[in-house]
Design goal:
Elements lengths: L3 E10 L6 E11 L4 E5 L6 H8 L7 E6 L2 E2 L5 H11 E5 L10 H11 L4 H14 L15 H13 L5 E5 L7 H18 L2 E5 L3 H4 L4 E6 L2 E5 L5
Parallel strand pairs: 3-8, 3-9, 6-7, 7-8
Antiparallel strand pairs: 1-2, 1-4, 4-5, 9-10
Keywords: ATP-binding, Nucleotide-binding, Transport
GO molecular function, one term: ATP hydrolysis activity
Organism: Helicobacter valdiviensis
């Protein structure tokens, strides 16, 4: 059974005669432990695809199967629970709380899951250690560099030990040196922790860190390097 399977996914915004079809019958399979880069020009459908994979949006038709669960049949509350327990998110803009310590930012999703304080701190410190920021745990986010803030964001995403990590332009606000640091962290997480990662990026140099590259164009898959493996 595939980790993720998409069958004939369509996404339509608006109503006729002004309807816009963002996804046009996408069929896609992602196996457990893969590191996939999702690429494509603006308007290609890659962001819509990522939102559906992260349960932030729903397809107009088709089947989205996540670990044997037909996500297409879930209601909003059920999707929220799936996101909270199985999916970690990394965003381009970091989305950290200002004037709040690195540790407190990492703890936040665990707090929502009502994880006991002692266990919450253990998991959060473990995650900060994995991204090399354990000595910065007590620094507020506004005291950290952009690269450090993104590392805190990664720690926050992995603290709850998700099955699936969705990274949306994780290096978009960083210079080349910091971008490489972030990509090495993601690559190591994939290799060592076996986390399945899907990364949306427009940077071909960053996409090379992934094991597989999927390019979207006009609402569907244009190319997929898995076919060459």
């Amino acid at each position: 059974m595939s980790f993720i399977q998409l069958i004939n996914i369509h996404k339509i915004y608006g109503k006729a005669p002004n309807a816009f079809e963002a996804l046009k019958g996408v069929n896609l399979q992602i196996d457990e432990g893969e590191f996939v880069a999702l690429m494509g020009p603006s308007g290609s459908g890659k962001s819509t695809m990522a939102n559906i994979l992260g349960c932030l949006d729903s397809p107009s038709s088709g089947i989205y199967d996540f670990c044997g669960v037909n996500v297409s049949l879930l209601n909003l509350k059920q999707k929220a629970l799936l996101r909270r327990h199985y999916i970690g998110f990394i965003f381009q803009g970091f989305n950290l709380l200002p004037r709040t310590t690195a540790l407190e930012n990492v703890e936040l999703p665990l707090l929502y899951r009502q994880v006991p304080k002692k266990e919450r701190m253990r998991l959060s410190m473990e995650a900060l250690e994995m991204v090399g920021l354990e000595k910065w745990y007590n620094h507020s986010s506004n005291e950290l560099s952009g690269g450090q803030q993104q590392r805190v964001a990664i720690a926050r995403a992995i603290a709850s030990k998700p099955l699936f990590l969705l990274a949306d332009e994780p290096t978009g606000n960083l210079d080349t040196k910091r971008s490489i640091e972030i990509m090495e962290i993601l690559s190591n997480l994939n290799k060592e922790s076996k986390i399945t990662i899907l990364m949306v990026t427009h940077e071909s140099e960053m996409a090379k860190y992934a094991k597989r590259e999927i390019v979207f164009l006009d609402g569907n898959v244009k190319s997929d390097t898995k076919e060459k493996l």
